[in-house]
Each structure stands twice: as structure tokens, then as C-alpha cells.
Amino acid sequence: MRSLALVFVGVIGAFAQLPIDPQLQAEIAKIKAIDNHAHPVRPQLPGTEKDTEFDALPVDVMEPYTEPVRTREGSPLVIEAWRQLFGYRYNDRAPDHVRDLRQRKQQLMQERGADYANWVLDQLGIETMLANRVAMGPGLAAPRFLWVPFVDALLFPLDTTNLASRNSDRKTFYADEERLFKRYLKECRFPFRPSELDSYLKEVVTATLERQKREGAVAVKFEAAYLRSLDFEDVYKSDAAAVYGGPRTSAPSEAAYKQLQDYLFRYIAAECGRLGLAVHIHAAYGAGGYFHIAGAHPLLLESVLNDPKLRKTNFVMLHGGWPFTREVAALLSKPNAYADFSEQTFMNYPRNVAAAIREWLERAPEKVLFATDAYPFSEEMDWEEAGWVAATTGRQALALALTEMMHDAEITRERAIEIARMVMRDNARTLYKLP
Fold first, then answer.
1. With left for phi above 0 and alpha for psi between -120 and 50, is residue 433 left, alpha or beta?
2. How many CB atoms lie within 10 A of CB 116?
3. Of 82, 134, 145, 330, which one has the fewest beta carbons inside 10 Å?
4. Residue 232 in contact with residue 265, Cβ under 8 Å?
């Protein structure tokens, strides 16, 4: 935590148009955060296999695409993360220097054992991280890590051949979802999907959500924007049942399958409201050259947020809808809508992130959540380095946004510090009813 505070204080001025208020800066650096969204990796300890459950749709299998500058190989931010986290002493990536770094990381992992991931959180100034994973496991235990499982697979109980044929990325992703769907069926003791929709809803969908709740989940996650658009319409159950119970000898058309998916999405959302699980939705730009950005527009979710049957369900727009951040500001007027600024904090520079979240803070500061989206992008930028970059940028951006609001006489310093604590931890504590 001390290293994070020193870097935060030392480099923040380089990104800001206004000098950051020093008292506000110091307060934000001290806050033990709750990270609303990340993909931590289980430490690889002797006798354990390499962790592959940090994402239902891992992005390292996609075709090459143009990555943001900050996350590309060779980013100077990575070297700074190495310095702060692992004591890296060099300004280059010489092979022998990087080899020493990797040995140091392995040594730390062996020394810390199952406590390694907790040690990483300490370096990032994070008290609790919501872990978006297929399953948890050794080294990722509550209360430091809270589970957010994936539920997209439940939307696709039928043959996805037609959906997967659109491009190579979706072909891979639908194969991933099929494997997870079969896992959920097995956990519900079904060798095949039930023949009737009612049975599927009760004995697979609801049973899976209830099991996840019992096993510690505080929310569920939809990565649906990687698979289809976010326009989940309100569909009659009879229409969905007709698609579900159709011929098993061929894949349904995209239009017919969408009716079933739309119905299942709203059913899952309603069940999450009943169970007290928040619904996280990837509602922003996503990785990959085939990602359909317009299909991830947060305004596509407005009919869901306006549905009276779903008003007991809290929805969190992960990544804050970038590049549609102004629309997110408007959607925060919905009583069950929240947003975090994960992904933006490793992809974009602090000034850009500050501009986005300032509009949110001016409208609904109690709806804004700090998050990193720490992710194992590569051997060079693993979840630890990505988490450091995102945590540091997030604190910088929040300090800049609040300083500008103070400069424009919108808030006092005392109110700025209060809002900072809300964003960094208190809003999440309220949303997830954390002690």
C-alpha cells in the first residue's frame, strides 16, 4: 500500500490540468478500496494446475487486433508496476532482467503460498475484490475475494451453430459457453437439457443461481456483448417455450433463438432480484477485432431497467459504457442502475477517465463504483500488473475529477473526500450489503 501511495503522489501531477488538491490526494491514497470487478488468478502452488477459470471467454484466443497503447507489449507502465510490486531495479526489458523478475515473482508466490493473492491486494490498496470467475479455489477466499460467477451459458441451451458462424471469435466463444453449459447441467444432475422450458427454468437456471448464492456469490456476470447485442426484449413465455421445445435436429434461426435468449435473460434477472444477487453486465467496448461495439451500447438496456418486474434487481454497467459514458450518466437516474469505471482504468489515461466519471459524480455519486478489471493479459502484464495500473489510474482519475469539481465551486473539499470514500468503498458496501 505504501508503494502505491508514493507513486500516486509522485506522478499524478503529470496527468492533470489542475494541481490536484493535496489533502484530497492524500485521503484518496489511504482508502482501502473495494474493487467491484476483476479477474484474479489463483496462485500456482506446488501440486496445482495452471488456473484457467479466471474468465468464461478468455481473450487470448482471439484473432490479432489493434490493442490500446497502454496495454500493448512494451508499455512503460508495466516496468513501473514491476518496480512497485516486485522491486524491479531496471529501466529496460533485457532478457536476464526479466528472467530475474519472473524468478522473484515465483519466489514470492512460494513464500506467500495461499496468501499470495491477499498480498497482491495489499500492494494495490484493495481490501476486497469481487472476483469474476467460473469458480473460486485455493488462494482466493472470502472475505478478501467475493465471487461473481458467469451466467451467459444459461442463455444458450440450444444448438448455437448458426450464432457461432458469424466470425472466428464467436465460434470460439460459443464453444466455451457450450462447455460451461454442460458443466452447469452436470452440477444440476442432468445428462441433457430438460425437454420442457418450465423444467429447464426451475431445475437448471434457478437451481444454478441458488447454488451459486449458497457458495458465496454476491452478483452474477453477463459477458453477452461478446456473443450478441444487449437489446433484451420483453418476450412472452409462450413464444420462448415454442422455440425451446422446437425440433432438436437443427439449430434455430438467429431471430427465433433471440426470443428465447431475451426471455431467459429477464427470467435470470428477476431470479437474481429475488435472491439478492446484483447483475453485472459488460456494457462497453470489448476486446477483439470483431467485437460489435454498437451492440454493447448501454442504452440498449433501458427497457430492462424500466421493466417494473425487474425493479428489485440491481444492474451494474461494467466498464461504464465507454465510449458511451454520457449515456451512462443519464441511465444512472434509474433507481436500480449502477456503473463502475473498470477497464477504462488500464485502457485510458487518467484525464480521459476523469472526464467520464465527473459527469456521473455530478448526477449520482452514490451509484459510482471503483474497479480495476485486473486481468492476466499476457506473461508481461498479468493480473497483478494490470491491477496496479488500473488501481493507480483510478485513484488519479477520481482525484482529478473531484479537484475540478472543487475548482468550479460545485463541492467543498469535505464533500469531495466524502464522495471519494463513497466511490472507493462505501457504495459497494451498501450495494452488496457487506459488513
1. left
2. 20
3. 330
4. yes
pTM score over 0.90: yes
DSSP-derived secondary structure letter, 365? G
Burial of 346 (0-12, 13-18, 19+ CB in 10 A): buried
Q: What is the pLDDT of residues 151-187, one digit of tens each?
A: 999 999 999 999 999 999 999 999 999 999 999 999 9
What is the DSSP annotation of 245-309? TS-SSSPPPHHHHHHHHHHHHHHHHHHHHHHT-EEEEE-S--SSTT--SGGG-GGGGHHHHT-GG
Per the CB < 8 A criterion, the answer to whether 316 and 281 are in contact is yes
Distance (Å, whole) CA 187 – CA 39: 23
Sheet holding 278-282, edge to edge: 219-222, 278-282, 315-318, 337-340, 368-369
- The pLDDT > 70 percentage for the chain reads 96
- Among 353, 357, 352, 364, CA closest to 430: 364
Distances (CA, A) of 116 to 11, 127, 144, 380: 27, 14, 12, 18
Q: What is the 3-state secondary structure (H, E, C) of 33-52?
A: EEEEEECCCCCCCCCCCCCC
CB under 8 Å to 230, separation ≥6 — which residues?
224, 281, 283, 295, 296, 297, 298, 300, 301
Cell triple for 277 = 444477487
How far apart are alpha carbons 78 and 75 in whole angstroms?
Answer: 6
